[in-house]
What does this fold into?
Amino acid sequence: MRNARFVCMPRSVEEAVAAVVEGGANPLAGATWILRAPLRGEALAEGYAVLGGAEDLCAVEIGEAGIRIGAAVTHAALSVALVGVEGFVGLAQAASEAANPAVREVATVGGNLCAAGFAASDLAPALIAAGAEVEIHSAAGVERQSVEAFLAARATRPPGWLMTRIFAPCSARLSAHARLPLRQAGDYPVAILSLSIERRADGAIASARVAVGSVEPVARRWPGLEQALEGQTLDPDAAAEWARARLGDFEGRDGVEAPGWYRTQVLPGLARAAFRSLRAQV
Ligand SMILES: Cc1cc2nc3c(=O)[nH]c(=O)nc-3n(C[C@H](O)[C@H](O)[C@H](O)COP(=O)(O)OP(=O)(O)OC[C@H]3O[C@@H](n4cnc5c(N)ncnc54)[C@H](O)[C@@H]3O)c2cc1C
It folds into this structure.
């Protein structure tokens, strides 16, 4: 890579960890974020470890307990792997609707979660709604933490770490992903709402996980709406009203695509769309 002093090509997770944690290389996955570093006024790193050659980082494994996603799995590969997998409709929607087909072919799950300062990740809220965890290797060892906790601390993590896998538990939960790009495709969504619900025998909502992305600098859960949904039916218009009543829970970020107030105001519409998607699944 121009101006980078070294580029290495690890062939396994172990080699990738060694290159990043001990060798001082910066992870390079699909490079769709890295290649625009100069546009953001950021310097390129001294060296890069290209993750795509490590087969075990590029695999999706689906077991009875859950799914294991290699950090270098692309959006396109993830959406194919999740076809027909119960409980992951929302995550599959996020992987297949983000960006555009060319970007989805190369941009990875790890890159989407790890890009510092990137607020509009589609996979982040979808993985939070799915109850997913990430595995991180660093000089301190291997740790596993929730996607939400990882994102909240991402900006302050000292360099020299590698995300290797993402785990999401299998469940009978219904899930959906709703996003609002200002154009049909290719630009970042101004707001994203992902959710998953567990239903009682009578069809009412037993528990909900709702995550909002792109509204604030970091994606996070929406506890107020989660509580309001408990015991309710799958009513899209009511969901929009419950969301509208709780917009004060967010402080929208101003950005080139939209002002902060607009990002929060579209959340009721996204809640309605997500509920329509849930209803279509029953
Ligand atoms: C035209 C366009 C439209 C887009 N639209 C959307 C959209 O609608 N929704 C959306 O979510 N995204 C969108 N994106 C952003 C895109 O999804 C991100 O650029 C992408 O996810 C980054 O992934 P990557 O594999 O290319 O990461 P890279 O560019 O390779 O890396 C990004 C950052 O993450 C670090 N990194 C990568 N992998 C790891 C790892 N395993 N461990 C630790 N650090 C790591 C790198 O060092 C770097 O700092 C769009 C991008 C483009 C170019």
In short: DSSP finds eleven helices and twelve strands in the chain. Residues 267-280 form the longest helix (14 residues).
